[in-house]
Amino acid sequence: MSVATIQAEILSLPPGERAKLIDVLWDSLASPEVTAREAAWAEESERRIDAFDAGKLKARDAGAVFSDLRRDFLSVMDLRRDPKRWEQYL
Q: How many domains are contained in the chain?
């Protein structure tokens, strides 16, 4: 069977079936390390969702999160420009 024939058959499938096929193909290409890392992240994301649903994890506004990241990043960049400022953290 040629690749063109397989491609034509794939494109005739319903979207849900094509999505399943993507997962099968992706998994067939992934190294064991990638597969393990993806599984670990899936477990972690489920743990966080469960914690949020149980009220054990608070959500933060995305704008506040990005503002904090920007502030922290700029602070680090300032430390790189002035290495003597690192002394306060040692």
A: 1
